[in-house]
Amino acid sequence: TYITSATDSSPSTGFSTSHLSAEQSPGREKHGMKRIVGSPGTWSGMALRLSQCFFAAASSLAMCSAFGFSNYSAYFYMNLVLIVQLLWSLYLACQDIFSMRNNRDLHAPDILLFFVIIDWAMAILMFSGFCASASVTIFFMKDMNFCAEYSRLDCSQFTLSVTLAFITWLLQAASSFSGFWLLISFF
C-alpha cells in the first residue's frame, strides 16, 4: 500500500490516511510516542526530572543551612522557587513512572501544552531566582567584602546554593526545550 502522510488523501482511492495507527505512521514508537530525549513518559524524561529534584533539593538545603538567608529577598525568592521546582519535578517524575509502568501515552497535545507552559514558567522563575541570588552573592563577596568582615555570613553556602540552582535551571531548560520541540512537532 502507498502511504503519503497523515493529512494527504490518495487521488486514486480518495481516502484519507489520518486513521492509521501509530505502528503505521513514520517517526512514531509502538505506543504513538515520538522519540525525543527528555520528553514526558520516557526513561530520559524521568532521569531528567529526578536530576532536577536532586539538584533543587541540594540547593535548597545548602541555602537553608546558611545563617540569615531569609534576611535577603533574593535568597528567599530563590529558595521558594527551588521548593516549587522540586515539587513540580517530583510530580512529573511520578507521571513518567506511572506512564511507563502502565504504557500510557503522555504525548497528547493537550497534556503536552500543560507541561510546556508550566515548564517554561518554572524555567523563567528559576532563571530570575538564581540570577538575583548570584548578583547578591557577588555583591557580598567581591564588591562590599561582607564575607570577610562578617564571619557569621556564610558566603560559601550561598555560592554553593547558587551553583546548584544554576544546574537545576540548566536541567529545567533542557526539559522545557524537549517538551516544546515535541509540542511543535504536532503542528
TrEMBL record:
Residues covered by the Casparian strip membrane protein domain: 39-171
Bias type Polar residues, positions: 1-24
Record membrane topology: Multi-pass membrane protein
Keyword Transmembrane helix: yes
Ranges that cross the membrane: 53-70, 76-99, 111-140, 160-184
Quaternary structure, from the entry: Homodimer and heterodimers.
Record protein name field: CASP-like protein
Phylogenetic placement of the source organism: Eukaryota, Viridiplantae, Streptophyta, Embryophyta, Tracheophyta
